[in-house]
Design a protein that fits this description.
heterodimer, A: 295 residues, alpha/beta, 6-stranded mixed β-sheet, globular, B: 293 residues, mainly alpha
Chain lengths: 295, 293
């Protein structure tokens, strides 16, 4: 369904995506995992063909670089946060995007009801909650029933309940045979949704693996947020990665996903490297089960 | 349209229809956004009030007795239009794409099955319709006042004023769109558009005067350089259409009347058309080739 070959994207001197290749079958679900600046968002934009890049991306055999408009008709995109005119009403926004996707108003109504937003058509976008905005973005992505859905950290701005709703909807879509590509900082989402994980760092693909290989445990996964000395974040992340941990350095701090029975390991690794861990908190407690993980 | 294999298969005619449909969708949205915005309301009210005020003053000056009511108003509106219309069109164009880029909405639009050309042209046509509609409201009310009080003498010149004003607005909007494409932020685009307005309205005239004195330019050279400025082309076109002599513009006007005769209005219209097409074309090329959103 999607074939990415030697994709490189530079912004001036900065190489945002570096010689990245992978393939994705129909109805497969793949997670992009990595710290902020790893190149996940840029890779997603390359898949959408919104700017030129080196290398090649094909979706359903069609080249994104040369036929971006055609390939985008096969892809529904959900951004991190819905960027749309705040004054616009939900109904008119849906009709505008329905016009761009060449579908009628019935498809727009169906799409809204699929994400539970029917009856809110008169509301202005600015009056929607974060969760509703994200569901609106999902409704727009589903308008023309595209075979591929691309999502850029779709739950990062949502509370636990909003997150749960979006993840449930995505599970339904995956089970209905949609191909999913999504960026995430949350191991629980990756374990629940993805059959494969691309671990990226500094624009490069470090691992093309499965969630179970990334977090090999039956005990479940916990994400720890470590509070360490100012300015040592990058060094700490590198040390933890070298020690085999799955690390995320993002706007929320330095997060490490570890098996429940090995929570002390990251702290001792950093202490041995003379980096002081002032405190830590537990963010997630994921009970991994085979039913949740199609891989 | 998708075949069974899932590959989109569009005929050439279907592709054109699809492209036109997307442009219309963007134009409709841009028009709706523009007419519901404060700047549009303010501009329409200000332009209408000024146009009607100029009409009443023209009538007062002519004793309300039909003495070329439209003609005097046309002359009175000319300077007002040369200041206000370029400013509004440049700012409207400059804010269009740069504003979308700054709000983060441009990426979302480009992630839809549309091309960059469709986005840009759709926005251009939507804004053009809003601008011209806004001016036509002012001109329409002004024409109503004049027709009621002074009959229809000079109506054709007034109609040509409306047509050329729309032409000037389209040209300045193209320049504004070009500035919007090359600017990452709305503030930068607006600053550039204000500078462009200063150049068109004041600096180019001063430069031409200084150049004429310094380099002792011949009259035909002054004319050729003068009409490069779309505002000068607009001014000459309106004066010519008022059946007035271009002698009021001095030796350059006399030269233009004598040399070009009846083809002068067409030449001036061509200048405005070029100022509409070329900046828009450059904007389309630059926007299509942008390495980022």
């Amino acid at each position: 369904m999607i074939k990415v070959s030697q994709v490189t994207k530079r912004f001036g001197r900065v190489v945002a995506v570096d010689q990245l290749s992978f393939e994705l079958d129909n109805a497969e679900s793949i997670a992009l995992w990595g710290s902020n600046g790893a190149g996940k968002t840029t890779l997603i934009r390359c898949l959408l063909g919104v700017f030129p890049f080196h290398g090649s991306v094909t979706i359903n055999g069609i080249d994104v670089g040369n036929h971006g408009k055609q390939t985008r008709s096969l892809v529904g995109y959900v951004p991190q946060e819905l960027a749309f005119h705040d004054d616009a009403r939900l109904g008119s926004s849906m009709l505008f995007f329905a016009g761009l996707r060449k579908v009628d108003r019935h498809a727009a109504a169906n799409s809204l009801s699929m994400v539970g937003l029917q009856g809110h058509e008169r509301k202005r976008v600015r009056d929607l909650s974060g969760g509703m905005k994200q569901r609106l973005a999902l409704a727009i992505a589903l308008l023309a029933d595209p075979p591929v859905i691309v999502l850029d950290e779709p739950t990062s701005n949502l509370d636990a309940s909003g997150r749960g709703e979006v993840v449930q909807t995505l599970c339904r879509l995956r089970d209905a045979g949609k191909t999913l590509v999504f960026a995430s900082h949350r191991p629980d989402e990756v374990i629940t949704l993805a059959s494969r994980v691309l671990v990226m760092e500094h624009g490069k693909l470090l691992k093309n693996t499965t969630p179970t290989e990334l977090w090999p445990t039956d005990a479940g996964i916990q994400t720890l947020r470590l509070h360490i000395s100012m300015g040592s974040d990058e060094a700490a992340a590198t040390i933890l990665r070298d020690a085999g941990h799955v690390v995320n350095l993002n706007g929320h701090g330095l997060c490490v996903s570890v098996p429940r029975n090995r929570k002390a390991e990251p702290v001792s690794v950093l202490t041995r490297a003379s980096i002081e861990v002032r405190d830590f908190e537990i963010l997630d407690d994921i009970q991994q089960s085979p039913q949740e993980n199609p891989a | 349209m998708t075949t069974l294999a899932g590959k989109p298969h569009l005929t050439r005619a279907g592709s054109h229809l699809s492209r036109t449909g997307s442009i219309i969708s963007f134009a409709r949205r841009e028009f709706r956004d523009a007419i519901s915005s404060r700047w549009f309301l303010l501009y329409t009210v200000a332009f209408t009030v000024l146009a009607v005020a100029v009409s009443f003053m023209s009538l007062a000056g002519s004793g309300s007795q039909g003495f070329a009511g439209f003609g005097r108003t046309t002359a009175g509106l000319l300077n007002l239009i040369m200041l206000v219309v370029p400013l509004m069109a440049l700012i409207a164009g400059a804010g269009s794409l740069a504003g979308e880029r700054e709000r983060g909405t441009l990426l979302y639009l480009l992630a839809q099955p549309v091309s960059r050309i469709e986005v840009l042209l759709g926005k251009y046509f939507g804004l053009a319709l809003a601008l011209c509609g806004s001016m036509c409201i002012g001109f329409g009310l002004s024409a109503g006042v004049l027709a009621w009080r002074a009959g229809s003498v000079g109506l054709s010149a007034f109609a040509m004023l409306v047509v050329f004003t729309c032409g000037l607005a389209l040209a300045m909007l193209s320049v504004g769109m070009l500035l919007s494409v090359v600017s990452r932020r709305t503030g930068v685009a607006t600053g550039l558009s204000l500078f462009a307005w200063l150049v068109f309205v004041f600096l180019s005239d001063l430069g031409l005067m200084a150049g004429t004195l310094l380099f002792k330019l011949r009259v035909q050279e002054v004319f050729a350089i003068g009409i490069i400025n779309p505002l000068q082309a607009f001014k000459m076109a309106v004066i010519v259409n008022m059946n007035a002599s271009l002698d009021v513009l001095g030796p350059v006007g006399m030269y233009a009347s004598q040399t070009l005769g009846n083809s002068l209005p067409w030449l001036l219209a061509l200048v405005l058309a070029i100022w509409t097409i070329i900046p828009l074309l450059i904007a389309v090329i630059l926007f299509s080739k942008r390495a980022s959103v």
